[in-house]
Design brief:
Helices cover about 40% and strands about 25% of the residues. It has helices at about 45-50, 90-105, 105-125, 135-145, 165-180, 200-215, 225-235, 240-245, 265-275, 280-285, 295-300, 320-335, 340-350, 350-355, 390-395, 425-440; strands spanning about 5-15, 25-35, 40-45, 50-65, 70, 125-130, 150-155, 185-195, 220, 255-260, 275-280, 305, 375-380, 405-410, 410-415, 420. Bound molecules: zinc ion (ZN).
Length: about 450
């Protein structure tokens, strides 16, 4: 045990602290000290009185916890929220989303859409997000400018889009972006092959080699629907997960998104290779894609994190909703109300997300030495009273609007629900301008 510091930049006295590591623990009347980017002390309030701090915050009715980690999304697609609903995946993409994107996606679209997404995510307690979208340079720059932590997964396809021509072009641009941000404390840049049905085997093999050389994560949509798996088996005689394994693409740096069509052999393979699963329960339900076997994955030791997917298929970027959906769906699926308890759902949205992104030594829990990414949730309102168990309230009763404060790398990005870096009125004006343009896209019916 090291003794607590004498001074701190910020000292927060909270009613409760949920550090997430150790698992399931709720500390009552504790305090946390932040200096620079890091957590420098976490201790009982009585012992924290000796610390002299520039800023002292009293939050007696609040719980402090690690900032939430959204492991899958397409932030700029927030500009398409509510544009096309109630359709299966392929008609939704082919008749609505892709034509709108072809007509409108640009650096400006990505910049404004990402700012809208970050504003929403911060207000609901997310401090780190993973993103896969065109013009990832615009997303990275926006996150950096707004003080938001993110993993940018540069997209790779076999075919041309607004951002690139072919796999070589996407990889070249993506690696240049990775170089541009190699010294960033907030932004990491990794490989984002879109899916096995949009990137051919030769290109996936090349990505496997490059990612291994660079020791870089790979983020991929995988087994999103039973139809995707069936098509691969019919065309190539192989399940997509088996193909990725054969190409050397499955390992502890791999983030497999969705994974709704899983047999026991798939789960054994994920466990043996150490690949991570990013579960997106609300998107999977809304697009009727299928159910991820979260209980079986966890029983075999597979790390399962949470993602919202985009606001076009969710339709919000709220990890409180995602934790709740994951817990309820797991119970329903297992016919067992004890499946996926609250502490486990919270771990999926925090430390498991950090593990999936390869950032578990920096974020995902409140521990001395880690980055000061944390949120305060106000539990005094009628929606979260009376209070027996803070963990239960966080997962089953909060809707995200109770998040009052947020810090990323020690910097206050939200205080008393006021965002420090985002002008919501100016953002609303630009969002409305995009809505007008997108609503009148030629050839697309709303
Ligand atoms: Zn997605």
């Amino acid at each position: 045990m090291t003794s607590p510091p004498n001074t701190a930049d910020t000292l927060i006295h909270a009613g409760w602290i949920v550090p997430v590591v150790p698992h399931g623990v709720v500390l009552e009347n504790h305090s946390i000290a932040l200096t620079g980017e890091r957590i420098t002390a976490l201790l009982p309030r009585a012992e924290a009185q000796a610390i002299e701090a520039q800023n002292v915050l009293e939050l007696p009715g609040h719980v402090l916890l690690p900032g939430l980690i959204n492991c899958h999304g397409h932030a700029a697609m927030s500009l398409l929220r509510g544009f096309a609903d109630d359709q299966p995946l392929m008609p939704w993409l082919e008749q609505h989303i892709w034509p709108a994107e072809r007509a409108h996606v640009s650096e400006e679209f990505v910049r404004d859409g990402t700012e809208l997404a970050i504003a929403e995510m911060l207000r609901a307690g997310t401090t780190t997000f993973s993103d896969m979208y065109f013009f990832p340079n615009a997303c990275a720059a926006t996150a950096q400018r707004l003080g938001m932590r993110c993993q940018i997964t540069f997209p790779i396809f076999d075919f041309p889009t607004a951002w690139g021509q072919d796999a070589d072009d996407y990889i070249r641009k993506g690696l240049a972006l990775r170089d541009d941000f190699k010294h960033s404390a907030l932004v990491t840049v990794v490989f984002g092959p879109h899916a096995p049905y949009t990137v051919c085997e030769a290109n996936l093999a090349r990505i496997a080699t490059l990612a291994a050389e660079l020791d870089a994560p790979v983020h991929i949509h995988l087994h999103e629907t039973a139809g995707e798996v069936l098509m691969a088996v019919e065309q190539c005689g192989e399940r997509p997960l088996d193909m990725l394994n054969r190409l050397g693409l499955l390992g502890p740096r791999t983030q497999c998104v969705h994974m709704t069509d899983l047999g026991d052999q798939d789960i054994a393979l994920l466990a043996a290779t150490g690949a991570h699963v990013v579960h997106c329960p609300q998107s999977n339900m809304k697009l009727a894609s299928g159910t991820c076997r979260v209980g079986a994955l966890r029983a075999q030791g597979v790390n399962v994190a949470l993602g919202t997917d985009s606001a076009a298929s969710n339709n919000d970027l709220n990890l409180f909703g995602e934790m709740q959906a994951a817990a309820l769906l797991a119970k329903l699926h297992a016919h067992d109300a004890s499946a996926l308890p609250a502490a486990d759902a919270l771990a999926m949205a925090t430390i498991n997300g950090a593990r999936a992104l390869g950032l578990e030594d920096r974020i995902g829990s409140l521990e001395v030495g880690k980055q000061a990414d944390l949120i305060a949730v106000d539990l005094r309102g009628p929606e979260t009273q009376p209070l027996y168990h803070p963990l239960s309230q966080l997962v089953y009763a909060c809707n995200g609007s109770q998040v009052s404060h947020s810090w990323i790398a020690g910097a206050a990005v939200m205080a008393d629900r006021e965002l420090t870096h985002i002008d919501l009125q100016a953002l609303a004006v630009r969002t409305n301008q995009w809505q007008q343009r997108i609503a009148h896209t030629p050839g697309v019916t709303l």
